[in-house]
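Rotation project, supervised by the postdoc (A.L.). Task for the rotation student: set up a whole-complex structure prediction and record inputs and outputs verbatim in this book. Inputs entered:
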Amino acid sequence: MTVPYSWVMALSAAIFVIGVAGVLLRRNVLVMFMSIELMLNAVNLGFVALARRLGTMDGQVIVFFVMTVAAAEAAVGLGIIISMFRNRETVNADELNLLKW
Amino acid sequence: MPLALFIFLAALAIISSLGVVIQRNPVHSLLALVMTLLVIAVLFIGLGAVTVGFLQAIVYAGAIMVLFLFVIWLLNLQVEERMTGHLALKFFGAIAAAALVAELFLFFAHAHPALAGKEMAPGYGSIASLATVLFKDYLIAFEATSLLLLVAVVGAVAIARRPSPSEADASGGKTGAAS
Amino acid sequence: MIELLIGALKAIIILLLALNLAAILLWFERKGSALIQDRIGANRAAITGLGRKLGLPNLGFVNTLVADPIKLFTKEDFVPEGADRFLHALAPFLALFPVLITFAVVPFGDQITIAGHTIVLQAASLDVAALYILATIGIGVYGVALGGWASNNRWALLGSVRATAQMISYEIAMGLAIIAVVMTYGTLDLQAMCHAQGGVWFGWLPRWGIFLQPVAFLLFMTAGMAESKRVPFDLPEGESELIAGYFTEYSGGKQACFMLTDFAEIVLVSVLVTTFFFGGWQIPWLYRDGFHFPGGATFAMPNLLVAILGVIAFWVKVVIFCWLQILIRWTLPRFRYDQLMRLGWKGLVPLGLLNIVATAFVIVLAGGAH
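Outputs recorded:
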């Protein structure tokens, strides 16, 4: 029996929400970043499921691009984290508040 | 793919993504994320996107996560003693998350019930069909993405490298403590 | 139901073959290195001197094969103080698993027909087998990475950081070599690649991949040896520097897993080189119905015998390449780390890219896949 696509989208929604919870509730910048990757993957899952539903390849191409952009973003983001750590000696998001009024 | 397999994989994905968010040791968190990525790769393959599924395993689980691991090593992150953060933030965050989940579930459960979808065309999800669409319809996006990757590599190196001694002297002698 | 049984049987057989070859390689390496270094090697293991008493020749081979695993598995298994117990236990298996599952897509023979069932001698007939191989090689980094981290030992961590950086660098070179091979054959399926390497050119030269892609062969062999951290790329293990590098703090069964990973990767690289570049199970001038020699002589053989000869030929080639890797190990000195990284990034990657461009030109000029 094939999987009903609403179930796959529900799984995608669940993983996305777990990622959002991770970003909001964790203070370690690296874990927040990992939660963002979770969100991206949930969205990828949704795209693939809908591409299968419609029978086209466009969804998979979009997933390909999302993956590539996520790689680029991970590289730059981690560079920023390293640079911040060098200055402030912490990766706790609460303590990175130089710009706070 | 068989329904029982999907339910098993879905449960595994949710458990491991909860593991990412809940674990206090960042390396354990990373391992949970790797497991989530591999489970999602298997789901991709089951949904017919074979090439993209393997690419997910190669690129995401095999390369990006190793990058994360290197940064965790470099910064020598230890286990967090306690979950910091205001209690109010956690409380309202949890409520918001639950509300979002309920809304999304309602939305998707009441979607079209018989979403069997079209039959997979032969060669759907194969590397040939992906390449055909990628290089015909999305060629400009492809070239732009390659440029984006180049910019990202140069940018990451520029941001993360140790400032050379001349620059450090120019900025008042404040050198970084970590390499 | 019978299909499931056949599939399970194939999987078990190939797994046992690969593991046994990896275990035999341990002895192979000791005796081979002894041969190269003009000494005798390990010959002291004897089961209560039984062989000598009965007047039989010294069964050193069997004794070592039995004694080594017994030694490894009965040693005390300790976890260093302050180490992460979960990761310490997980790392060896995380290192071994990707290497073993890669054997599933390797074709070790042509198809045979028994009682109406056509059995393809490949545990999993995957259309995108080459991508699968790249994926499992990518996952193989984690066992090494976590092994050093979980040991609470800064020298082990240093070894594992070096090992991880080395593995991800040479993965790229390996991937580029595989891409060139895939371009040449126009398919990612390994069994189809083996089939495409049958036949002859000019009436006598077998159509093996090495003649089409010599550069890719060198690239793949080098990158494969670097991936499995064999000498001359064994600085992460650094036997004379870091004791055992990233698996210093492991003993007993966990150390056995790491060593098995090392030898299983030797077998894996040999198997992949055989499949991509040396025709896999193809014997020159042997077709499905028998031999067709270049002189015109033919020799008819039943299909089953041809398939069995193919399987034997495959494993003979694999053993030859395992021996080649052992030979290289005991001949060359170790690379320094910066030399290693320079070779990977500034040498092999540009070479791989040039190879791909050249292959593309040749394919376009020749008007289609070779």
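Student's summary: Chain B touches chain A through 91 residues (CB under 8 Å).
Supervisor addendum: The radius of gyration of chain B is 22 Å.
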